[in-house]
């Protein structure tokens, strides 16, 4: 039996926050396939690895080519290499995951074959991409417990209420505002800017900045 050719591909799960049913919810961009296999199905942005590029460079190139995005936060998730992953040839996929702020997500290419979907309400996906998204969501939730990656989804200045909304969107549950505030302030990873949020009724909330953002830009 002749050896089956093996292709190495690089794909990325990109997370951002968008409104869904009146609340902030975790979303990710998908690319609609324009050829077989899985013609018409939605898939994670990605493509084959070139011989002259690193895995990280391939992830960034494929993201730029398919979605127009260039996330500041990008890290490797896992390698998926089951023998039968729904393609004619053997494909081993090295998967990255990324976080983008709202203003970064707004730079997504204007293309009918690129669309953002809520992570909890995805359309049928090509290949094993539903499993891959599941792995990425689990990793995101786990890292929320011992890192400050939630800051990577926020603008330079934010309220503690907005930070809490990020955690709620990722965890999928409500958090007590007072307990959350005490926990965040105890970490020393946010600092008051001295300014307050404009354009709100009643007492405007204080604005903060992240003191841990640099560690996320890797």
From TrEMBL:
InterPro entries: NUDIX_hydrolase-like_dom_sf (IPR015797), NUDIX_hydrolase_dom (IPR000086), WH-like_DNA-bd_sf (IPR036388), WH_DNA-bd_sf (IPR036390), WHD_NrtR (IPR054105). Transmembrane segments: none annotated. Residues 5-139 form the Nudix hydrolase domain. CDD domains: NUDIX_NadM_like (cd18873). Gene3D superfamilies: Nucleoside Triphosphate Pyrophosphohydrolase, Winged helix-like DNA-binding domain superfamily/Winged helix DNA-binding domain. This is NUDIX domain-containing protein. It comes from Amnibacterium soli.
């Amino acid at each position: 039996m002749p050896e089956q050719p093996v292709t190495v591909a690089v794909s990325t799960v990109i997370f951002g926050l968008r409104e869904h049913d009146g609340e902030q919810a975790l979303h990710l961009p998908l690319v609609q396939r324009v050829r077989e296999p899985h013609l018409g199905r939605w898939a994670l942005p990605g493509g084959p690895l070139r011989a002259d590029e690193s895995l990280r460079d391939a992830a960034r190139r494929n993201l730029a080519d398919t979605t127009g995005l260039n996330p500041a936060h990008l890290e490797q998730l896992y390698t998926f290499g089951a023998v039968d992953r729904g393609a004619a040839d053997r494909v081993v996929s090295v998967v990255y995951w990324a976080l983008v702020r709202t203003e970064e997500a707004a730079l997504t290419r204007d293309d009918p074959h690129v669309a953002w979907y809520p992570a909890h309400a995805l359309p049928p996906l090509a290949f094993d991409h539903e499993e891959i998204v599941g792995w990425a969501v689990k990793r995101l939730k786990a890292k929320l417990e011992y890192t400050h990656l939630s800051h990577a989804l926020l603008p330079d200045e934010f309220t503690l209420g907005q930070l809490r909304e990020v955690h709620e969107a990722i965890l999928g549950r409500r958090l007590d505002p007072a307990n959350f505030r005490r926990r965040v302030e105890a970490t020393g990873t946010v600092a008051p800017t001295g300014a307050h949020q404009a354009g709100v009724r009643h007492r405007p909330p204080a604005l903060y900045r992240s003191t841990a953002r640099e560690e996320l830009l890797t």
